[in-house]
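All the exercises in this workshop are built on plain-text protein records. Sequence and backbone structure share a record, each on its own labelled line. The structure tokens are whole numbers drawn from a learned vocabulary of backbone shapes. The record below serves as our worked example for the rest of this section.
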Amino acid sequence: PTVNNDRKYAGYYGALQVCNNKYYSLVDAVSQHIGEANTVTASSTDDGVKAVARADFVVLALGDDLLVEREGSDRKSISFPESQLNTVNKIAAASKRPVILVILSGATMDVSPFLNNPKVGAILYSGQPSVAVLGVGDVIF
């Protein structure tokens, strides 16, 4: 659900005008290493499961955005929403190889539901990376 969040993160504490006037997302971060990345949103988990079965590898973005976590408005729980937990389980089960979870969030989130899942190969917490999200691709690849 957070894979295409770009402008939502970039203008929070950073400059109002970003470098090259381009707001980057996790899709851009992955695409710079593998070419065009196929994305599936949380609202189409069933389509995602079909796509994952054919994928060479899977990077799954989770977390929240500034609508949930910002100054003066804290989350009531550090748990992932049930919909995201279900998405991870379905996508991981359908994947040929262990998936990479990238968490985009303004604060701590409870990753314990993923720790014993053998189909989760890595968990990367990237905070709210703003335009520095391109570095997430460097870490993964």
Q: What stands out?
A: The chain has a mean pLDDT of 82.
